[in-house]
Write a structure and sequence with these properties.
alpha+beta; Chalcone isomerase; 14 helices; Fusion Protein Consisting Of Minor Coat Protein, Glycine Rich Linker, Tola, And A His Tag, Chain: A, Domain 2; 3-stranded antiparallel β-sheet
Length: 368
């Protein structure tokens, strides 16, 4: 059971929090480490991910519906991770890995999850998601329970680690212990200080305010049919050689980003949700036009390309650049050509309140 701190008791907890001593969820349920991996963005390590289960699981379906207690644990490796980036990670990942139908079915809970952090995460913070079959999905930060959701939310969250659009190496390391497990676990030795835990406890004072603001702003989204398309090895005519795609370098230093008010968090959560839905639609639209290059087939080339695709309100492509290369220029170029063939995209929702929208579009080339 987690240390659950009621908002009315925060003042007391700030003084005596370190005196709490309760059994860890993983220990109570005899969970064992199933896999461990590092989540990266633009080749920069963000957090260490651990999946703990009662019995080892090696397939995505077993992880999505474990049938027994399980736990996801994220230990932050970078200096800081803003609530905005936290929100974007979950919503965009769920949209492309769990699908629009499941996402819209759990819209209210996902919008709440998007605002569950009342400030930025700091290095060594531990964000855990505990699955209690048939009862609840419980999220905590540094052993402080922040919120409980339905048990049905777990499959959407674990999809961010084992879904079809996740990096293959990352998914494999979550579903089976990698050879460098000891090295990875050595990154997770420093515990959050009592001062940091007390700071997290103070977040609960404003939790009700943010919940009320988020409930008032829940948008209605009509789900579209989900079309799962994997780039199949169908031989195509060899295109003329092209210059190597430019890989864009972006900064993830958000140390000086201002924290959000409750109203801002609710508004941003709504926009992020709508953006994630539209990004998923763009991914489906693009995947219909992906072709596996013949030369890549002949050489057994596989990989995942992540592109930043910017469109205007009418769905016309303003720009498309590779933000994360597959390591193979021929696959990167084909992904960009698929964007060209897909234009124009559907109009993006007016709720995004912008003249252009940039979506992260991952394309996986997998030999079957």
């Amino acid at each position: 059971m987690k240390k659950f701190i009621n908002g009315a008791l925060v003042a007391l907890c700030l003084v005596s929090l370190s005196s709490f001593s309760q059994a860890d969820f993983a220990t109570e349920n005899n969970l064992v480490l199933n896999g461990v991996a590092i989540h990266q963005e633009l080749r920069q390590p963000i957090f260490l991910a651990k999946l703990k289960v009662t019995h080892p699981t090696s397939t995505p379906n077993e992880a999505r519906i474990p049938g027994a207690p399980a736990q996801m644990e994220l230990t932050l490796l970078k200096r800081t991770w803003s609530s905005r980036q936290f929100r974007q990670y979950w919503l965009s990942g769920i949209a492309i890995n769990a699908g629009l139908e499941e996402m819209t079915a759990h819209q209210t809970e996902l919008l709440d999850l998007a605002t569950v952090l009342k400030g930025r995460m700091r290095e060594n913070d531990r964000f855990t998601i505990d699955f209690i079959p048939g009862e609840a999905t419980v999220v905590s930060l540094n052993d402080i329970e922040l919120k409980q959701y339905s048990a049905e939310l777990w499959p959407l969250l674990i999809a961010n680690w084992v879904g079809p659009r996740v990096d293959q190496d990352y998914r494999q390391n979550i579903l089976s212990l990698p050879s460098n497990t000891s090295e990875l676990l050595a990154l997770d030795t420093e515990m959050p200080s009592d001062e940091r835990i007390a700071a997290i406890a103070s977040w609960l004072v404003v939790a009700e305010e943010i919940e009320v603001a988020a409930e008032e702003l829940v948008p209605e989204v009509e789900p579209e049919p989900v079309v799962e398309v994997v780039a199949a090895p169908v031989r195509q005519p060899e295109p003329e050689p092209e210059p190597e795609p430019v890989v864009v370098a972006l900064s993830f230093d958000d140390e000086f980003e201002e924290d959000e008010s409750a109203e801002e968090a609710a508004l941003e959560a709504q926009k992020a949700f709508m953006g994630a839905v539209y990004s998923s639609q763009m991914l489906q639209w693009t995947n219909r036009n992906v072709r596996y290059p013949s030369r890549a087939l002949d050489r057994g080339r596989e990989g995942r390309v992540i592109m930043d695709v910017t469109v205007d309100q009418a769905g016309n492509v303003v720009s498309a650049v590779v933000s994360e290369s597959s390591g193979h220029g021929i696959l990167d170029r084909e992904a960009l050509r698929a964007v060209d063939r897909s234009a124009p995209y559907p109009r993006f929702p007016s709720e995004l309140d912008t003249s252009t929208y940039t979506a992260s579009v991952p394309i996986s080339f997998i030999l079957q």
